[in-house]
Write a structure and sequence with these properties.
Blueprint lengths: L1 H16 L19 H18 L2 H12 L22 H6 L7 H14 L4 H16 L7 H5 L23 H15 L12 E4 L11 E6 L2 E5 L1
Antiparallel strand pairs: 1-3, 2-3
Helix pairs in contact: 1-2, 1-3, 5-6, 5-8, 6-8
Length: about 230
C-alpha cells in the first residue's frame, strides 16, 4: 500500500506540473469502512491510468527509476576503516590490519622503522615513527619524511642505516609488513602519544653529546628519546 501511495504521489506531482486534469474520486459516507471500498479502489486506479496516459514516456521512465532506486547508505551504515585514533600498541592489532601501501613518503618511513626499530616492540616502532614525523613538522629539519630520513650532517647520516654501507634489502617479511602498517597508520594521523614530541633517540648503549643538552622524554625498549 505504501508503494502504491508513493507512486500515486509521484504521478500526481508530475501531472500538476504539466497541467493535467484529474477525475473526481467519490468517497463513501458509510460508517462501514469496508463499504464502497471496491468502488473507491477502482476510482483510484482509474485516476492513475489517466495520469499514466498523460505523462511523456521519457518522464515516466525517469520517475520509475527514481522510485525504484535503492536508498543511499547513511554514514552510520557504511563500512568504516580502522580509525588511526584507535590504534593499539600490540602485535595482534598490527598484524590484523590489511597490507599497507603508499607513496614514496610512506616507503621512506616504513624503511626507517624497519631498519631502525624492527627488533623493538610495536610501541618502540611507533615511537621511532613519531620522531621522524616530529622532525618533518619542525622548521629545523627538512619538510618531508624522505628528507628527514636521508638528511646528512656533520657527524654523518641522521639515521645510520642510510649510510652504513650495508644493504637495505628487506630480509624479514613479517617485520617489514608491521613496519609498513605502522608507517601507514602514522601518516594517516595516528596520535603521537609516546614520546612527548621527541626529535631524537639513541640506543641505551651509546651516549651522544647532544643527549646532555636535550630533555629526555621517554625510555622505550632499547631506545631513549629526547626533545630538542
Amino acid at each position: 500500500m505504501c508503494l502504491r501511495l508513493g507512486w500515486t504521489a509521484a504521478f500526481c506531482a508530475t501531472l500538476v506540473l504539466n497541467g493535467a486534469a484529474f477525475a473526481d474520486v467519490t468517497v463513501s459516507q458509510s460508517n462501514d469502512p469496508k463499504a464502497g471500498l471496491d468502488g473507491r479502489m477502482s476510482s483510484l486506479l482509474g485516476v492513475e491510468r489517466t495520469a499514466l496516459d498523460q505523462v511523456a514516456p521519457g518522464k515516466l521512465a525517469a520517475i520509475a527509476a527514481a522510485v525504484g532506486a535503492p536508498k543511499p547508505a547513511s554514514k552510520a551504515e557504511m563500512p568504516q576503516m580502522t580509525s588511526p585514533a584507535l590504534v593499539r600498541y600490540d602485535t595482534g592489532f598490527v598484524d590484523a590490519l590489511p597490507a599497507a601501501t603508499g607513496d614514496d613518503q610512506w616507503q621512506c618511513l616504513a624503511t626507517a622503522i624497519y631498519h631502525e626499530a624492527r627488533g623493538e616492540t610495536i610501541r618502540g616502532q611507533f615511537a621511532v615513527a613519531e620522531v621522524i614525523l616530529n622532525r618533518a613538522d619542525s622548521p629545523a629539519y627538512p619538510r618531508s619524511i624522505c628528507g628527514v630520513v636521508h638528511q646528512g650532517g656533520k657527524g654523518g647520516c641522521q639515521f645510520s642505516f642510510t649510510c652504513d654501507g650495508k644493504s637495505d634489502r628487506v630480509g624479514e617479511k613479517a617485520a617489514w609488513n608491521r613496519a609498513a602498517k605502522i608507517a601507514r597508520l602514522m601518516i594517516d594521523g595516528a596520535p603521537r602519544a609516546l614520546t612527548a614530541g621527541a626529535t631524537h633517540f639513541h640506543t641505551v648503549g651509546v651516549r651522544p653529546g647532544w643527549a646532555r643538552r636535550f630533555d629526555r622524554t621517554a625510555s622505550i625498549g632499547a631506545h631513549l628519546f629526547y626533545r630538542q
